[in-house]
Write a structure and sequence with these properties.
alpha/beta; eight-stranded mixed beta sheet; two-stranded antiparallel sheet; 11 helices; globular
């Protein structure tokens, strides 16, 4: 096995320094595939998740792409921000612009789950955007207030968990809308978002102050950003869990009629959000991006 093949199987861990009004912070990212491949795919996770969520997808697509999976600020191995009110889309977009500059490419393809999709949509709407193809996994220009209220009931509130089993039980409960997964897959989905404390207990590994910024967005009304959607021009795929409480069917259908007039795929038996871990979901993404 040559060096390039080994790298496809074993991602390289890197970081890039970014700036905000509160100072500097480092963003961690995992890079799969050949470093000299000009075809770059950026995969960005949801609110309380991390870069490791895309391990299966990145491995599957690293034969055609240099796949880059960042931990958004406050999550995973990235720094926590000094000011929790900066945990918002404008700062995340700025960080991703810095990351893409580090990659030294003119264009990227983008896969974003939930929050990662909102970041991608905001970046794709910019004049001169580097986003040439966009996959929005359970994300769109309307975020249902009911979904934000549901997420706020648990996000940032988890106490130390006495064991890994307790951590997995919590992840299974709050992530039940992800749909059916095997016991091994649930263990993985837990392992990547928890850390062990000195006393042997576990914690969810994100800055709990992110919840402060989230609560500011709960106003009793859905969050709408149709002008941003209408400014997107690149080919776009929308993946919707058929049981989603965040991206309504009506919004998804409107997304096929205006802006980039997206292609829509709905996945039965899944809510918010598909994990893109399974072969059938990976195939949907691969076929849109490459064909």
């Amino acid at each position: 096995m040559d060096r390039g093949a080994r790298r496809e199987l074993n991602p390289v861990k890197r970081h890039v320094q970014c700036a905000s009004a509160a100072g500097l912070h480092r963003i961690a990212y995992r890079e799969w595939g050949r470093a000299d491949n000009p075809q770059v795919l950026v995969c960005v996770h949801g609110l309380g998740r991390c870069a490791r969520d895309f391990d299966n997808l990145a491995h599957a697509l690293s034969d055609r792409y240099r796949v880059v999976c960042p931990d958004v600020a406050g999550r995973g191995d990235s720094d926590w921000l000094a000011d929790p009110m900066l945990y918002d889309i404008p700062l995340y977009v700025s960080d991703m612009v810095t990351l893409i500059a580090r990659l030294d490419v003119e264009q990227v393809h983008w896969v974003g789950t939930s929050m990662g999709g909102l970041i991608g949509m905001a970046l794709a709407a910019q004049k001169g955007t580097p986003v040439a193809k966009l996959v929005l996994n359970e994300a769109g220009p309307v975020v249902a207030n009911a979904s934000l209220e549901r997420i706020a009931t648990y996000f940032g509130k988890a106490p130390p968990l006495p064991s890994f089993q307790a951590a997995e039980q919590l992840v299974r409960a709050v992530s039940a809308p992800f749909g059916p997964h095997t016991d091994e897959e649930w263990r993985f989905l837990t392992e990547v978002v928890v850390r062990k404390n000195a006393d042997g207990s576990y914690r969810l590994h994100y800055d709990p102050r992110i919840a402060e910024a989230l609560r500011q967005q709960i106003t009793g009304k859905d969050l709408e950003s149709w002008p941003t959607w209408d400014a997107v021009r690149c080919p776009t795929l929308v993946i919707r869990g058929a049981q989603s409480d965040l991206l309504s069917k009506d919004t998804a259908l409107q997304m096929t009629q205006r802006g980039p007039k997206a292609k829509l795929v709905e996945l039965p038996g899944i809510g918010h959000a598909p994990t893109l871990m399974h072969a059938d979901q990976i195939r949907i993404v691969r076929e849109f991006l490459l064909f």
